[in-house]
Amino acid sequence: MSLGYAIDLHTHSLRSDGALEPADLVERAARRGVRIQALADHDTLAGAAEAIAAGDRLGVRIIPSTELNTESAWGDVHILGYFLDPADAALEERLCWLRENRGRRIELMVEKLNALGHPISLARVKEIAQGGSLGRPHVAQALFEAGHVATYDSAFDTIIAKDAPAYVSRVGLTPLEAVQLVVAHGGVPSLAHPFTVVGLEELMPLIAAAGLVGIEAYYGSHPPAMTATCLSLAGRYGLVPTGGSDFHGRGEHGAPLGGVFVPPETIGALEARRRPNAAATMAAVSVEGES
Ligand SMILES: [Zn+2]
Ligand SMILES: [Zn+2]
Question: Are 42 and 78 in contact (CB under 8 A)?
């Protein structure tokens, strides 16, 4: 007996913050009648192969996907990236980079320091860290060595203090960067649970212009008015309405697997908007050029 709908384009496994192994997640989805499922773990495609293998066995088509959180003044803007290639090494590099956001934070700080007239090199900062997880102490040491501060300690009170222009508090992609990352890697981006966005009407034209393809109109906790708003935005910006449970299996949020109706034509509409993986092609060309 099938308990849920056949399409679920938003699920999470243990490879990010879900509670189930990818294979167990697919098995549970299959039992509920799901036939097409996007595994959209945060910043990773690590569960895709296991989910696809389970899906092959159980008759569930798995769409390798990820969900990218972003940092901006627009509130919680999460971008789902569909039809990504788990074997795309250039993409994995970017996702890994996101996961290691500690390192990214420091990289950004070094960029800012250079722009602000306190030049240090990231290479030197990494040398100081000796393979360890990068942090402000390594930046402070590099600043001291380069003569930008009188003492190591004073860097924390001056150039890289919390209120200094070079300070970077949180790290992540902006909404536009997340959309562009998915598009560049041949994926199809959709705005997840739009009700968490602050200033949705203002953000939409910006991310639509950046290449957004879908909007998650069908979502468990959306009141009917929110779904209507999303459908109207989809019409205005030529977007495909998508939907999913956002199932985590931890009971905190999300609908049951297959718990949200997603129109069958959604998959074809998303597939029709796929573009070649330009980033992987460029990476292959540059590797050839180097050899
Ligand atoms: Zn989310
Ligand atoms: Zn999610």
Answer: no
